[in-house]
Amino acid sequence: MSDAVLFEERVADNGARLGVATLNAPQTLNGLSLEMVDLLDERLQAWARDPAIAVVILQGAGGKAFCAGGDLHGLYASMREHQGQGPWANPYARDFFEREYRLDYRIHTYSKPLLCWGHGIVMGGGMGLMMGASHRVVSETSRMAMPEITIGLFPDVGGNWLLNRMPGRSGLFLALTGANVNTSDAFFAGIADFRLDSADWPAFCEDLLRQPWAAQPGGPGSGNLAPRSINDGLLRQALLAREPATPLEPGPLRQHAFLINSLCGSNRLEEVYGEIATLKDHDDPWLARAASTMLAGAPGSARLAFALLQHTRMRSLGDVFRAEYVAVLASVAEGDFQEGIRALLIDKDRQPRWRPATLAEADEAWVQRFFQEPWPQGTPHPLADLGQGI
């Protein structure tokens, strides 16, 4: 059995080292398992402490995806086992989401430059890994999305932090429709910083070995007072040196930004939902597909995504993860998440039976259960220390 994550340390010409972590489950599009989460988190902590490690690179094996999501099969089995027992009764779900969110938070706050190579499909849990990286790199193959509405969930893994910071109302539109974002729109939406052609990736990795990396005191090149800023700059220069000359054409999210802002301008979900629904027969296939995906998705997910975006709008990153953790445990217990996985991956009939079945049933009173902490009274939040120097 192959290792779920491959780790390598490459030695640069000046003796500094580059830490490379490769998600190694191409047969499942590098879907993120709990084992992978734990392996990554342990190694990232070790590399953060190692003064010789100048830069960390996170990539996925195979050519199709960086990471297309999380361990839906494992979560489905745990939901079946603990069905009807309440949000705090599922130990696998509690562990999976706590440790995944901790890893994502660590990437957001990592002490060294961390480059994420977002080639191919980047969805769900893959977005959680990528969005916090200091250098987010896409290619001509990148397709990014948070399509959780299709499986009865909501954009988590810090998604509310990201979506609330997108231009205009585009974040709300993407949350409700799960629409794919191409390479060009990744820059418009603020979820990419650099781009490389896929064919140039191996040569770029070789370029990195020739950079004069600074290291922390005690490592190669020690004695510099600000190695982080130097290495950020060196990594940026290396990326810009191989930036493709071909300009990017505006993607559909940017092309339709005015329309999206108009459709999503209301503070009432019912009005926004109704406006987006009018796009289902639009001449633009991207808009039509977005509307159709929303209409086929879980009405409860639409309500929860909308409510969470409002609830977390001005919150800290740690508070966002804490709110998402409460909501995700409720989602595990409520039923739509289990039903969405069943329809997509287990029975594969693509005919989910959502409960609530309509947006009117998934009203503002119904969604309040997703904001109620499920653990025993007096127990601290499992993510209470996020933001406290973890």
TrEMBL record:
Where does the Enoyl-CoA hydratase/isomerase domain lie? 19-371
* Gene Ontology cellular component terms for the protein in this record: cytosol
The transmembrane residues are none
Q: Which GO terms describe its molecular function?
A: 3-hydroxyisobutyryl-CoA hydrolase activity; lyase activity
One GO term under biological process is: L-valine catabolic process
Its Enzyme Commission number(s) read: 3.1.2.4
Annotated keywords? Hydrolase, Lyase
Q: Which Pfam families match?
A: ECH_2 (PF16113)
Catalytic reaction equation(s): 3-hydroxy-2-methylpropanoyl-CoA + H2O = 3-hydroxy-2-methylpropanoate + CoA + H(+)
> Record's PANTHER family?
3-HYDROXYISOBUTYRYL-COA HYDROLASE, MITOCHONDRIAL, 3-HYDROXYISOBUTYRYL-COA HYDROLASE-RELATED
The name this protein goes by in its record:
3-hydroxyisobutyryl-CoA hydrolase
- Organism whose genome encodes this protein: Bordetella trematum
Q: Give the gene name.
A: echA8_13
